[in-house]
Amino acid sequence: MAVIDYRQEIDQFEEHYRYDSTYMRELLETSPEGYAKFHAFQPLASHRERLSRESFWVAKLAAMKTEDCGHCLQLNVRLALEDNIPKPLIEAVLRGGDGLPAEGQTPVDTTMTWFNGSPGLVARVDGSPVAAFNLEIRDGRIEVIHALRNPDKLRLFGKR
User: Which of 11, 68, 129, 140 could form a disulfide with 154 if both were Cys (CB 3.0 to 4.6 A apart)?
Assistant: First the structure.
């Protein structure tokens, strides 16, 4: 796609979602190739495979509320509404989970561990490992987080 087409797409996105896309414009202007990679990644950000739409948005909005900026959270609220997610469900997530249906409250147990030569954690649902995260720490800061979702490899952590 040509730079001019990307600019037009950013303009439309910004207008439609009332979202400040300055960082997208700056990336496009300083590195068109970098922006092309960012653009190509976008479908992966909404991939949910077997996860229900509601569960996907509960998880995404909860993560945004905890780890992202208010502007990104607002953008994702607009995206969830556009995806016909019920407003009461969105409001429950924004209240910290109070009022979520039972399936939105699956308890996740996390335990610290050590694997692949670095500290990490294992997330379990009903005692079975569902994900593991390995941290690369340099100078006291987390520099890289590796996620492990392969069920065959997760079996190594065992069921609790």
Answer: 129
